[in-house]
Amino acid sequence: MSRTQMLQIQFNDVALGYEKKRVVEGLSLTIHSGDYLGVIGENGVGKSTFIKTLLGLIPPVSGQIQWGGRRCPSGVGYLPQMTAASRNFPAVVKEIVLSGRLGHMGYRPFYSGKDRQLAQNAMEQVGIAGLEKQPFGRLSGGQQQRVLLARALCAASDLLVLDEPVSGLDSESRGAFYTLVKQLNTTLGLSIIMVSHDITAVVQQTTHILHLDRFPRFYGSREDYVKSPVGQAYLAASKRAV
Ligand SMILES: Nc1ncnc2c1ncn2[C@@H]1O[C@H](COP(=O)(O)OP(=O)(O)OP(=O)(O)O)[C@@H](O)[C@H]1O
């Protein structure tokens, strides 16, 4: 059974950026429940800026973003890009997963039974239930990404946002991670937004694609993207680069 509410995120002629610096202009799109959106584009075009704006961390420079009639996001789990420092984070797996509940605690000083149950469910869903007492820094890269995915899952009722989630992983761990995320999308009905440079995976895994540039180059279904001139040119260029 789907655990999602009806999600609808609408960008109406939005400009993204900082103070007076416009990074992306004229962005209009609608993300629906169950969509799996891949966000692609060259380095520095504004993919992280899009995510920061979507999460409400920075305001749009102009235009409007609506969350199903609301003006700010909720029910979102976020898996940020991994840094070298975060790979050695000094905590055990269960503590890290539970910390996904911090945003739901209000003034409560301790985790509730419900928080612990959600953390347990999330660890089972991503296949790390047996690792709960392990120090995070001793896990493989693939296991660490699953821990962070479980943490994000604890916070997510509607939407998971993944920023370059497989960077630094070997090809086997990358494949397993993509399979897991796709399962969360299809079996739980969670909407997914994934920023990635891995265009091959993006066209295999997602339902929709946003190809960013100063003015967005494409937004629509994955099927239409691979047939479009912009999609064909990007796919051909990425094959030549391999
Ligand atoms: N806090 C900031 N203040 C001002 N400009 C910023 C800030 N963060 C990023 N930028 C600029 O905004 C532009 C878009 O950056 P952003 O990080 O969103 O690109 P990106 O597509 O995610 O890049 P990459 O693929 O390299 O991760 C860049 O020109 C960057 O220098």
Largest sheet: 6 strands, mixed
Order of helices and strands: EEEHEEHHHEHEHEEHH
Task: For the largest sheet, list the strands in their spatial order.
Answer: 5-6-7-3-8-9
Q: In what range is the share of β-strand residues?
A: 15-25%
SS field, number of helical segments: 8
Oligomeric grouping of the chains? single chain
CATH fold-level topology of the largest domain: Rossmann fold
Low-confidence stretches: none
Provide the gyration radius in Å. Answer: 18 Å
**N- to C-terminal distance:** 40 Å
Number of domains: 2
Broad structural category: alpha/beta
Q: Please give the number of β-strands.
A: 9
Hetero ligands: adenosine-5'-triphosphate
CATH architecture name of the largest domain: 3-Layer(aba) Sandwich
CATH class of the largest domain: Alpha Beta
Give the helix level as a range of percent.
25-40%
Overall geometry? globular
Q: How does this structure look, described?
A:
- The chain has 2 domains: 1-75 and 159-168 and 191-242, P-loop containing nucleotide triphosphate hydrolases (Rossmann fold, 3-Layer(aba) Sandwich), CATH 3.40.50; 82-155, no CATH class.
- Helices cover 35% and strands 23% of the residues.
- The protein contains 8 helices and 9 strands.
- The strands form 2 sheets. The chain has a 6-stranded mixed β-sheet, sandwiched between helices. It has a 3-stranded antiparallel β-sheet with strand order 2-1-4, with helices on one face.
- α3 packs across α4 (141-155) and α4 (141-155) packs parallel to α5 (171-187).
- The chain is globular, with a radius of gyration of 18 Å.
- Bound molecules: adenosine-5'-triphosphate (ATP).
- Adenosine-5'-triphosphate is lined by residues 18, 21, 23, 41, 43-49.
- Belongs to the ABC transporter superfamily.
- Residues 9-239 form the ABC transporter domain.
- InterPro entries: AAA+_ATPase, ABC_transporter-like_ATP-bd, ABC_transporter-like_CS, Metal_Ion_Import_ABC, P-loop_NTPase.
